[in-house]
Amino acid sequence: MRWLWEAIALPDTPASVAGPFATVSTSALLFRAGARVCALSVQQVLEVMRPLPVQEVVNLPLFVQGLTMIRGAPTPVVSLASLFADSGRPPTRFVVVRAGDRPVALAVDSVLGVIELGPATLHALPPLAQSAGTATLLAIGALDAQLLFVLNSTSLIPDEVWQRWPLSSHD
């Protein structure tokens, strides 16, 4: 499988790309969430697994599906398709990532592989996307004719949600 990369022509410089991709090439896990192709630095990924049973939890955002047990610890499950306001399909994989010092399972449609991403292939968010106030999205790029969304796992779940989270080790 060969991935062809081309940069999206946005008025910025490679140095304006945030996160681990700012100055050097970094290995990234590529996956599909609904209609979107996304990437995360492999440094943020703990493991990839088949989906486990999820217990719903009330009073949390719709993109948080609930809790699952991973390696003996209750772990929140985030539907990336729902986070992007996409209905998506039932997930075929959980991508377990570090969200700060806590694990989070991302429910994704499929895992596409590991690729090298760097500043030459990515661009900072356009001003309109920056003004949306989301820290979840680090940068954008292009994979063939599709947009590529580079995510920041540390901000997938806002602090105010963690504060309401049941069984939090940080209560």
Summarize the structure.
Helices cover 8% and strands 41% of the residues. The chain contains three helices and eleven strands, in the order E-E-E-E-E-H-E-E-E-E-H-E-E-H.
Attribute tags:
171 residues, five-stranded mixed beta sheet, globular, disordered N terminus
Give an overview in words.
Helix content is 8%, strand content 41%. The strands form two sheets. The protein has a six-stranded mixed beta sheet, with no helix packed on it. It has helices at 80-83, 127-130, 159-164; strands spanning 26-33, 36-41, 45-49, 64-70, 73-79, 93-99, 102-108, 110-117, 122-123, 137-143, 146-151. The radius of gyration is 16 Å and the shape is globular. A hairpin with a 2-residue loop joins strand 10 (137-143) and strand 11. With 171 residues, it is mainly β.
Question: Which outline best applies?
Answer: globular
Number of strands: 11
Count helical runs.
3
Mean model confidence by pLDDT: 75
Secondary structure blueprint with pairings:
Elements: E1 26-33, E2 36-41, E3 45-49, E4 64-70, E5 73-79, H1 80-83, E6 93-99, E7 102-108, E8 110-117, E9 122-123, H2 127-130, E10 137-143, E11 146-151, H3 159-164
Parallel strand pairs: 2-11, 5-7
Antiparallel strand pairs: 1-2, 1-8, 3-6, 4-5, 6-7, 9-10, 10-11
